[in-house]
């Protein structure tokens, strides 16, 4: 999960980095120098690019370094970006293709955010039910059950369930909401 989270952070930084790279390439800056400029200011992505620049300076070819970077990640977006960068380096694509890819990635991110915002409403209703309605129903059940039925609950249980169990369920729900949010 942590590896996927880090890849999501990389994906978030890709559009801006691609636009920056495309702008520099359009002005005639060599590809290797453009990559070196990306090695600062793009968070996790800059760390990967620094590593690539180091490998290139030690003799590895640019396409080989980009290919290895793309294959080291499970993300389809990162693989796609790596292949697009290889094509741009080899002169098969113009810088506009990188800008187009960046726009596509931004559009995909917007769609993911819209989907998530719809899910947040459902998560919020479920959270309210679990954190407010269930404890109230439990307390009612305990009162009615002990008064009119042969239902026994110890005072410790009556205290621990609302104080420990229901908040624990709330924390689990919050963790699930955070795990599903787009980075």
Structure description:
With 183 residues, the chain is an all-alpha fold. The protein folds into two domains: 2-110, Receptor-associated Protein, CATH 1.20.81; 112-180. The protein contains seven helices and no strands. It has helices at residues 2-26, 31-38, 44-57, 62-71, 76-89, 95-148, 155-180. α3 (44-57) packs antiparallel against α4 and α4 packs antiparallel against α5 (76-89). It is elongated, with a radius of gyration of 26 Å. The model has no long low-confidence stretch (mean pLDDT 88).
Q: What characteristic shape results from the CA principal axes? A: elongated
N-to-C CA distance: 13 Å
Helices and strands: which structural class?
mainly alpha
What count of structural domains? 2
The second-level CATH architecture of the largest domain is Up-down Bundle
Low-confidence stretches: none
The top level CATH class name of the largest domain: Mainly Alpha
What is the CATH T-level topology of the largest domain? Receptor-associated Protein
Q: Please give the count of helices.
A: 7
Mean pLDDT across all amino acids: 88
- Please compute the radius of gyration using only Cα atoms: 26 Å
Number of strands: 0
Question: Gist?
Answer:
The chain has 183 residues and is an all-alpha fold. It has 7 helices and no strands. The model has no long low-confidence stretch (mean pLDDT 88).
